[in-house]
Design brief:
Phosphorylase Kinase, domain 1, 45 strands, about 0% helix, about 45% strand, globular, disordered N terminus
């Protein structure tokens, strides 16, 4: 079934046509116009009064909804301080994707001084992805994104002036924040008085770890380079960040422990982008409760500190939990160590959104499945003391018989909550309208010596598809891209891991908007062969990076030998397990300049590659 995108997030891309408002218990309808192609799009929204009841007198202002703030995986928006907004989005260009920004006025139209199609922020070869945008405090914006111009995900940042031109001193396609030879993803940006702090997921250690760096307002990287953000956990990801009001930022994230369990934590950065020394080095544990804790969202609390909500599941259905941490890094006085269950009751709860109120509490909205397989939107108001102020099981925002997901919320001007969401309605149009999402059916999947090959089928339309992969408990990474052609996507992962449970999903960009398929689990454990790539950099100065593939977790050894065959350095690597690995061979630091042979041994087989070391 086609899905119309009724989200406030999506509506940030839209300009005003004319309001078509209908008082319905399933939300109010407003018609907006997409400034990129002139298509009409209907969005749905609801306003709750301060007591949690539906505000029957609310007549939504079209401009307020059509340029409301929000973010999604491929675009975001931020208010411009003059009643309008800046919008960043990703669009296909035939060779990959580009990043564009538009400025909209208070009526939802393109700003009079800006081109109707917006400005090109990055047109470099390859894909730009996962854009995030924030105000620079001087009338313009910072935009951060994941960039594939070098073949793997790097992090870039641009600064756009109020006129649409790059800010003075900034290059046209952005500044390389991190271009390490391994993958970086999930960028976030928080502005302060002297520039911006950028945070991302970094894979140089072999696992996803959070790193951060500060840039000046002129785009100059901090001389000390990036720093690791938090010391705990095996892998870290799904981070969210907000300004702390003192030039730094609060950062919430999930991490896995040695058993593979997910836990949520909160940390704080100072105005230099470094972990705040007074806070725990591993961050603040948000809950002592058992079970998985995932997908945190946060908001700065009135009076200091942060309010954090997350998805929690110990057994049975998942719930939404909330915690408050004060500015000093302690659980807020009076709040339980395990956090507060926002709306206890039957049925799965998912995808929380949070906004702080003006009295030290917060509003939370979420997807709720108490009625069955189709989602509804519920909300709760939690006080500064951790008390639920609305109905114990939450207040109904929308419980239409169709599916509602992905709530986005903001404060209502007179108190209470304003929400919008993604709402499933039957579309009468067969093609991919700007107001509809395509449906993709998996036709085939085949794992062989050339990789894992997929074919998805879709009824018409065109766009750009990305294949993403995640291992057990791992973060999602893009592994391939292909066009949607002839109602079909044919795409392959040419270098899959040796995992029995590698997970895949297809992400399709349709007019700059993302559609994601259901996950597919593939057993690729039997197709890997022993492999050793040339070292990086070559010639090497000091440490060098070795990329190799192990077909199993059997004992294996990397050995550096001189031309006479004498071993001068070695490392056991079998414990890394089956799959492709990238490590820095620090054991080579003490060897003198010269020519060497690097050998990889496992199970009676050996591979070699030449190495030249300079000093």
């Amino acid at each position: 079934m086609a899905r119309r995108f009724f989200s406030l997030v999506a509506s940030t891309l839209l300009g005003m046509l004319a309001p078509a408002v209908h008082a319905q218990t399933s939300g109010r309808e407003v018609t907006c116009r997409d400034f990129r192609n002139g298509a009409d799009i209907t969005i749905r929204a609801q306003q709750l009064a301060i007591d949690g009841s539906v505000d029957a007198m609310w007549e939504p202002a079209t401009s307020g909804l059509c340029i409301g703030a929000g973010t999604d995986l491929s675009f975001g928006s931020v208010r411009d301080g003059q009643g309008g907004a800046y919008v960043a989005w990703i669009e296909p260009n035939g060779r990959g994707t580009n990043l564009r920004v538009q400025r909209m006025d208070a009526n939802g139209n393109a700003h009079a001084d800006w081109p109707a199609s917006g400005v090109l922020v990055c047109g470099a070869d390859g894909d730009q992805y996962a854009a995030r945008i924030t105000s620079d405090g001087a009338g313009g914006v910072y935009v951060v994104w994941q960039d594939y111009r070098a073949g793997q995900g790097d992090i870039y940042l641009a600064r756009v002036s109020p006129t649409g031109a790059p800010a003075q001193g900034w290059p046209a396609d952005g500044v390389a924040v991190c271009a390490d030879s391994t993958e970086q993803s999930g960028p976030l940006v928080v502005a302060n008085a002297t520039g911006a702090i950028v945070l991302w997921q970094d894979y140089r250690s072999g696992a996803s770890r959070l790193r951060t760096i500060r840039l000046s307002s002129a785009g100059v990287l901090a001389p000390e380079g990036s720093v690791a953000f938090a010391t705990g956990g095996v892998s870290q990801g799904n981070a969210q960040a907000v300004a702390d009001g003192a030039g730094g930022a609060y950062v919430a994230w999930e991490e896995t422990d040695a058993t593979g369990s997910y836990r949520t934590r909160l940390g704080r950065l100072d105005d230099a982008g470094h972990p705040l020394a007074a806070w725990p080095a591993a961050g603040v544990a948000l809950s002592t409760a058992a079970g998985a804790q995932r997908f945190p969202v946060l908001a700065p609390t009135a009076g200091g500190g942060a309010s954090i909500a997350w998805y929690a599941r110990a057994s049975g259905d998942g719930d939404i939990h909330m915690q408050q941490v004060d500015a000093g890094g302690s659980i807020h006085g009076g709040w339980p160590a395990e956090g507060v269950v926002v709306a206890p009751g039957a049925g799965e709860q998912y995808a929380p959104a949070i906004v702080a109120d003006s009295t030290g509490g917060a509003y939370i909205a979420w997807e709720d499945y108490r009625s069955g397989a189709r989602g509804d939107i519920f909300a709760q108001h939690v006080s500064a003391q951790g008390d639920r102020l609305w109905a114990a099981t939450g207040a109904v925002v929308c419980d239409d018989v169709t599916d509602q997901t992905s709530p986005v919320i903001s404060l209502a001007p007179a108190g209470g909550l304003r929400a919008s969401w993604t709402d499933e309605r039957t579309s009468s149009r067969g093609e991919w309208a700007a107001s509809a999402s395509p449906v993709f059916d998996l036709v085939s999947v085949n794992a062989n010596g050339d990789g894992v090959h997929f074919v998805w089928r879709t009824p018409g339309g065109s766009g750009l598809a990305h294949l993403f992969r995640a291992g057990d408990g791992g973060s999602w990474q893009r592994v391939a891209s292909a066009p949607v052609s002839g109602g079909q996507v044919t795409i392959a992962d040419a270098d899959p891991p040796a995992e029995a449970h590698a997970r895949y999903r297809l992400v399709v960009l349709v007019r700059g908007r993302e559609v994601r398929t259901a996950e597919v689990t593939v057993d690729a454990s039997s197709r890997l062969a022993l492999a050793l790539e040339r070292i990086r950099p070559s010639p090497a100065r000091g440490d060098f990076r070795v990329v190799f593939t192990l077909p199993s977790g059997a004992p294996a050894m990397l050995e550096l030998m001189d031309v006479a065959g004498r071993r001068v350095a070695s490392r056991s690597v079998g414990e890394l397990g089956a799959g492709k690995h990238s490590i820095a061979l620090t054991e080579s630091r003490t060897v003198p300049p010269g020519r060497y042979i690097l050998r990889l041994r496992q199970g009676g087989r050996a591979l070699t590659t030449p190495v030249t070391v300079l000093r």
